[in-house]
## 1
Amino acid sequence: MKAMILAAGRGNRMRPLTDHSPKPLLEVGGRALIVHQIRRLREAGITELVINHAHLGEQIEQALGDGRAYDVRIQYSPEGPGQALETGGGIHRALALLGPEPFLVVNGDIWCDLDYRRLRLEAHDLAQIVLVDNPPHHPEGDFALRAGRARLDANGDRQLTFAGIGLYHPHLFADRDPGAFPLAPLLREAMAAGRCGGLYHAGVWLDIGTPERLQTLDRMLRSSQMKR
């Protein structure tokens, strides 16, 4: 299975740290955020990676190269500055590199101790997404989960937060035109059609969206509270 790391965001909430460095290269626990992701994917046996980039993306390619230093193979899907393809458009642009089989997609600005080998796409499903408890900065959540199925309507089930981790079939994007579009509407359509699974992760998950959260994660990693 191949995996894609989403690394094209501008990181406006991280400024001024991202004025001269792309967010995925910001360091926590002595390593770049994106290197933590690569190591976790490698531990799960995933060695074929695609990384998209835009803002200062050449720095990402210079830092990671072809992936040989991490025992993986990296291909890049550059989007160019100012294009802002959003999550759905960025994945769509990379489909030729990802191939015809289901692939894993992870946000480049999260830290999560999920074992990616837990994800499985059921027959006829277009997606399986990972859901976590709602963090303080997103208390309303995104979707509900019942019996392994992601749902639009809670109907008594509590809302959970989309972790920015999902397993997708290329057919999820089949009818979309190239260009900028979000991922969430595609997931909602799959849920409405009963073709989106869900996996609850009760472990550690952090959205590293601000300098304060970056500092918190750095302290946690340096104090050995979490596996690096």
## 2
Amino acid sequence: MKRFNYLLVIGLLATSLFSSCSSDDDNVDTGTVVPGSTTLTGAITSSVTLTKDKVWTLEGFVYVTGANTTLTIQPGTKIISKRANAGVLVITRGAKIQARGTAAEPIVFTSGETTPAPGDLGGVIVAGSATGNGNHAQMEGVTDATYNKFGGTNDADNSGALQYIRIEYAGKTANPNDEVNGLSMYGVGSGTTVDHIEVLRGLDDGFEFFGGSFNAKYLIAYACADDDFDFDDGYHGNLQYLISFKDPAFTDTKNRWRRFKQP
């Protein structure tokens, strides 16, 4: 499908399907804590806000961790990553993300390279305490045992909100067959809000859900190399309005061989 058609469809979705989000998060109040550096790396252990007046950089794995820790991202905020140390944002079990973009001001995770390419960004991962079937003992691609656990017994768990977000050029290989997707949701509960998200030209899956009970709607996977929507570990939420566009020239040949060449 030509780029023109893609933009037309996205425009129609934005005008006919998207409903406006609350503007409560548009402004920073006097109690907001903003990181002192625009480069984010390592563990974030206290609540912070990424403001839209700066361009933020994810460097390597960035862990938001702690039961009282919330990462808030303002509408219109841009977050970039460089290929040499592709950034992965991980909201660990118990922490929260409040990323409420709007149709007019989406939150964008993208490449910081002059010539963007899939794999420049790692991806976005959210973990919660909802139930699953135990097929995976830890998150894919997250090798640090301090931060890679997920799931529990609380299907009403709340990991925050993800709304009006675009994730571009994602995909990071931690080990052979151990990769980060555009948006990965691990044991995320139904108290979490998830809607109006696009994953564009991801090197691996667009969306992958590992267990959990959250509901989601208005999800777009555009020209991702592997699965557009992948489900593991007994995901049991409700989904509406999912759209997939494929690019025949951009596919994960390794996985294609594994699925169709083996007896």
## 3
Amino acid sequence: MDGRSYSPAMSENPSRRPRITLGVEVRETPVGDVLYAASADHVLSVHSSAPVRVACPASLSRDVRTRGVLNLVPAGVSETWIDDDAGATVDLRLPHSLLQRAAEDMGLDPDRVGLEPKHHFRDEHIEHIGWAMEAEYRADFPNGLLYRESLGLALAARLLARYRGQVEVRGGLATPQLQRVTEYVEAHLEGDLSLTRLSRVAGVSASHFKTLFKRSVGVPVHEYVIQRRVERARALLLRGGVPTGQVALEAGFSHQSHMARHMRRVLGVTPGAIVRSRA
């Protein structure tokens, strides 16, 4: 990775309506594992270098990825590939809120639209957007936020027209939604798991998400996150080799006492008791 990226959260335009813009990262991919960690954004990876031999561990398939080949990783989903050759990609990061805005413009229910993973495909329209964003990146974004927002809406409209996944919300979170959220929680236990962030991963409003999540899982989202953090802390303590205070931070607790309080409540034991049980 060359160290420069543009984040949709960055804004240099103090306009009344906040711009929701398309993010971009131009990165080099080494030989070996290439990870796309679960994110609150949808990610379109555009291969931008010479051909690369690549294997997908999940499907046990092998391909040769040529310039312009695309991979779509929806929000909340993680993907790993194994590259046999070094290469480069242009990664487009599409905020789900921008997908929802495009859905509204297209007459679709923004709370019911989503995207499904799609690997090793070609789409000339998306490819052109990728090269335009790469040019913006390399020129230090001379055309401003409105240009990137326009490209983001064009990308969102294309994805919704060709690669849309339907999200059912009547009884609870749809299976793909719930999977995205739970995978995102597991991948980010040590970080920000606020209601706002998780509702973005699910692709619904925060107030709607609270209700749907509890219907699907049986506990409030805050309690679910605490339970998963407690379980992560328990596993780290049983493994050993890490100080208890560091375990608390890696599991997402603010400090050791915070972890101990929730561990006693959820498991009925203290961190010290778990450490002693290794003996």
